[in-house]
Amino acid sequence: MLKLYFFLLGTILASFAGLAAVRLGNGQRPWSPGRSYCDHCRRQLAPWQLIPVCGYLIQGGRCHYCHARLSIFYPLSELLTGGAALALCQSLSLDSAGILLVLTTLVFLASTDHFYQFIYPVALAGLFPLGLLFTPPGPKVSWPAALLFSLLLSFTVLHSLGWGDLEFLTVLLLTLGWYPTALVLLAACLLALVVNFASGRPRHGPAPFIPELALATGVLLVFMPPI
Ligand SMILES: [Zn+2]
Q1: Which residues belong to any copy of the Prepilin type IV endopeptidase peptidase domain (predicted)?
Q2: How many A from CA of 69 to the centre of ligand 1?
Q3: Which residues, by Cβ under 5 Å, contact ligand 1, an ion?
Q4: Distance from the CA of 115 to the center of ligand 1, in angstroms?
Q5: Which letter, b or e, does each residue of 192-211 get, where b requires 16 or more Cβ atoms within 10 Å of its Cβ?
Q6: Sequence spans of domains, the chain
Q7: Cis peptide before 33 (omega within 30 of 0)
Q8: Rounded to the nearest whole angstrom, what is the distance from the C-alpha of residue 79 to the centroid of ligand 1?
């Protein structure tokens, strides 16, 4: 029963994080207007349309009123966050609250980058509990961290990586160390290749990379032992 509670809480928090990201990017407040509306026809959505994951599935991935295609990003992030919360949260504790904060932050960062190609650096603060919650795997030496940071900084200066991506990866370096950060980077690059291949469109110019980084981080956390 507790697992189901954490799954539902994860989906609700992801839904709120996605909504807050889109509203802030539009210059609105996260809590105003009170009820969400369709981005295409501007009709106010009924409560059943707002149920995480289910609202999307019941509508068949299209707006109930204007039949415009809805973004798969929302139900996917809600489902993945619910699954991660279910796997990681063990009890009603401060640790579980910290894990939910980290997961919600990952969705918020991924959403702003996915929809607007930027992140709010202040939101990265939500990732700092990582260092208190998990035991990072890998060798306990620090010099590869400096090497990895130098490489990432070079890529950023050469415009192969965004500044937001560098900030995200630097927070991972500070909280989890170089080994998990290198794993996240590798997995995110593979994911980006798969997404590119599946979409059938070659990418030109800057493309959002935080969604891949956030997903790879979330997957890694599921396999990382708690402190
Ligand atoms: Zn509509």
Answers
A1: 101-195
A2: 9
A3: 38, 40-41, 63, 65-66
A4: 18
A5: beeeeeeeeeeeeeeebbbb
A6: 1-90, 117-226
A7: yes
A8: 23
